[in-house]
UniProtKB/TrEMBL annotation:
Catalytic activity: ATP + protein L-histidine = ADP + protein N-phospho-L-histidine
InterPro entries: HAMP_dom, HATPase_C_sf, HATPase_dom, His_kinase_dom, HisK_dim/P_dom, HisK_dim/P_sf, Sig_transdc_His_kin-like_C, TCS_sensor_his_kinase
Enzyme class: transferase
Name this polypeptide is given: histidine kinase
One function term, GO molecular function aspect: phosphorelay sensor kinase activity
Length: 420
């Protein structure tokens, strides 16, 4: 799995990696150059000293004029006999380590005779180690400096981006009077990003405003004809009508009341939360459950199903009447449509309720999708468009409620709503 690092951290990592590569390359190059130059200089020096000994000292019977670190050996001079450990060296410059001590060896072949100069290199090795330590310390300091500089630069570079992100997250940016962000930034990449955000936010504001006005206006305009329909149904209900006509009038009245509830729900959802209490009303769970039981109990029983209202625990809290009524109504309607035999139960709890049915159940892979708009189960029932459960989910999200669906044994579904 690819790890996602913050952008500022990536800048620091890039600085450090670049410094490691560059400083490491130069440090390695310094070590190599020092070794090469050392070999060349020492080889040239030993060659010059050996030639001086062979041309100016030995022919005149003088001992080799060498410093204390250098020794002379010759195959034709017993007093300068070559030790067994040095006889295997080839002509030219070589290095030898003996008893933990390193030596430079230079061999010159004249006919059948071999001449050697051996120089103790402990002093040079000490200087080399000191140089290598200095190189290592400089390398570590450069990496540390790159880390500090990377953090400083990342903070500097990310400052306008962080500021823009903080402004974007601010909830007041969605207000119509919120000022644009682009004028606060220079004409660079961040400024163009702020300008793009201003354009997108402007379109979002317009869309939200159109949706709010449409929902509010439609809700207001539909209330008058719905009241007329309900009034007409009430007058017709008092008249002496044939049984079939009376049933149709009652059906029209129920549909008008349901539409009135939906209009009220959409109107509240379009308003701010501070305005909900004034138009939504409040009621206890038990009172709304009793109301919906009387409303949906008869059609559920008329389908040949058993219907029960059970109270497991009392709940005296007050909830938004319109929202709670719509949620209960949609869940009971859904249970009615998708249950062919058995029973439907409405069970009240402290802080919530359950709607259980003995229907076909909902496959696990569809339990999240059924709360999406225009999504219906595989065994669709009724004339709905798949908006009932979507509206339930929207209301629960708006109110901070929770709705979940699970299976019941041996078959059926359980919709559980937590109101607290």
């Amino acid at each position: 799995m690819r790890l996602k690092q913050p952008f500022a951290r990536r800048i620091v990592i890039a600085f450090v990696l670049m410094t490691v590569v560059v400083s490491g390359f130069f440090s390695l190059a310094i070590v190599v150059v020092v070794n090469v130059v050392e070999r060349q200089l020492v080889s040239w020096e030993l060659k010059e000293e050996l030639e001086t000994v062979l041309e100016q000292d030995i022919p005149y019977g003088r001992p080799p004029r060498l410093d204390a670190r250098t020794r002379f050996f010759a195959s034709d001079m017993p007093q300068y006999a070559i030790p067994e450990s040095l006889r295997h060296f080839a002509r030219g410059f070589s290095e030898q380590e003996e008893d933990g001590i390193a030596y430079y060896v230079y061999v010159k072949q004249i006919g059948d005779q071999r001449y050697l100069l051996v120089e103790d290199q402990r002093e040079i090795e000490t200087r080399e180690k000191m140089l290598f330590r200095v190189v290592l310390v400089c390398f570590l300091l450069s990496v540390l400096s790159a880390w500090l500089l990377g953090r400083l630069l990342a903070r500097k570079v990310m400052a306008p981006v962080t500021r823009l992100a903080r402004q974007v997250r601010h909830r007041d940016q969605l207000l119509p009077l919120a000022p644009p962000l682009a004028p606060e930034y220079p004409d660079d990449e961040v400024g163009r990003l702020a300008e793009s955000f201003d354009g997108t936010l402007g379109q979002l504001r317009q869309s939200l405003e159109r949706e709010r006005l449409f929902t509010s206006d439609v809700s207001h305009e539909l209330r008058t004809p719905l009241m007329v329909i309900q009034g007409a149904c009430e007058l017709l209900g008092e008249a002496a009508l044939p049984p079939r006509a009376g049933e149709q009038v009652a059906r029209i009245g129920r549909a008008a009341r349901e539409m009135q509830e939906l209009v009220q729900t959409f109107l509240i959802l379009a308003r701010s939360r501070q305005e909900e209490a004034a138009i939504g009303g409040s009621a206890t769970l038990a009172s709304v459950a009793e109301e919906q039981s009387q409303r949906w109990g008869p059609p559920i029983r008329a389908k040949g199903l058993d219907f029960e209202l059970l109270v497991e625990d009392a709940d005296n809290a007050a909830y938004n009447l319109t929202f709670l009524r719509v949620v209960l109504s949609n869940l009971l309607r859904n249970a009615l449509h998708y249950t062919e035999s058995g029973r439907v139960r409405l069970i009240l709890e402290n802080g919530g309720f359950r709607v259980e049915d003995s229907g076909a159940g909902i496959p696990e892979e569809q339990r999240e999708r059924i709360f999406q708009p225009f999504v219906r189960g595989e065994q669709a029932r009724g004339e709905g468009l798949g908006l009932g459960l979507s509206l339930v989910k929207r209301i629960c999200t708006h109110q901070g409620w929770q709705v979940r669906v699970s299976d019941l044994a041996p078959h059926g579904s359980c919709f559980r709503v937590r109101l607290k």
